[in-house]
């Protein structure tokens, strides 16, 4: 009989929108083989401490089962990390088993501090997924920790986007050779005929971690793979070099539906679905999956799904946590207006030790099921909700035809993402937007790549086009300026790259504007013209404006400082000192301006740039209103959050 392996799946602790699809397929793969799978996303130091804490808790609970040790979790973990005697005294003082408890607490603290866990590694195989190259530091840190956890480093597998783009760099840095590409052939990691890339996703691992992905209830899948284009700024030709015009989806869809319940939305990760000659078939299949125009969704009973999976022994940790949070969500949200039922429900949870997560067991969840089930079913949310389809990676305007757009309008697409990567696409982009409006698609979204080969006025022009199309066609078009970062080399490892026609000051100015609006350029001429200028000339003035004046616009306008700066700026632009000032502004190192010039007029002008955000003590009500407006927009519409790039941070 084949030995059951302990598998650890790690996602570095970066902020990301989508769950780790590759790890979810790998989890399905290993569970098919009977292996034990654990998923973790968070700080790796915490993971090691948590593992040792759990072992320590199990041991001391056998010595003293009367003390609710889990309520002292914070103090125990602090002692494990520091071995402070005062903490140990507080933990065990007065306990009749104090000497024995002290001995074991000290043992586990030494186990952590002296890294004795390196002699007792429990993981037979560890997988680390990677995402954007600019998460280099966090990702390398995760790989280095993974090396400490896996029994044999030849069974440490690193894959994903960054692994495929910076393969050599990762190997040089860590000594681990990453896997490049996707697991789309049999026998790629074990000697069997399973094609991992074709497996359904294991959604249950997402319940094991505290991190919450903003995608909500959704199917994640592909209808096609790869792209027919070879754009220099895009990683797809490397990650998915072969274009597959149709990927079998229905069987995986049905498996997910059966095991995890119906999902509300359909998120398609295709990189160029419109390039497929089977586009009509794809749309028909999407409709067959239940995503037709006007389709609604009623959330299935997630509690019953959790209990069913607990009874079958499928991911006890994940579904224990899932059931706990479902029950407490019902108590705190759905039952808050029915005091009598809330009290009855609370008493059931209390009686079965379901009030605090560390106490909850799968056995108690199953025992309490008959009492909880009718209450949960009666009061859970059963309101019909709209279903939407999102081709999340965008569609290619150059492939759009009237027939394609008419066919696409048969599904509840929201938003329609149309790429507008450079201003040379203007004609095709505008035609595609007009066709969308013609066939009743009213919500659109796009990334606007900048800092590549474009000029700042190109970005302004694309934003302006969207504002005008929104007004003319009565559409909601949300633009998301996305800063280009190289795919390879040292510049790929951070977010500091400056394109040929850009400079540090211009990039920081764009980010300052987007900081206010959470990265979104929404429909609405008044905000756009205030934020980016009424024309290209005003846009360039804004790019040179001090960052603090940009963010806290109303504060400095009321103090007349913005107007004074603008008068001085316009005067300097017409003077003989402009070229010297321009260089200093574009370097954007204002703290050391005195080392760059000794001209008193220039130094006096540069004082505008030494005012930092920390110097702004007034509460800027205008900026708070704008931020709240965009916060509310994001909360109302999950699809906007799924488009955020976080570049503005």
TrEMBL record:
InterPro entries: BchE-like, rSAM, rSAM_sf. It comes from the Bacteria. GO terms for molecular function: catalytic activity; iron-sulfur cluster binding; metal ion binding. Its cofactor is [4Fe-4S] cluster. Keywords: Iron, Iron-sulfur, Metal-binding, S-adenosyl-L-methionine. This is Radical SAM superfamily enzyme YgiQ (UPF0313 family). It comes from Flagellimonas meridianipacifica.
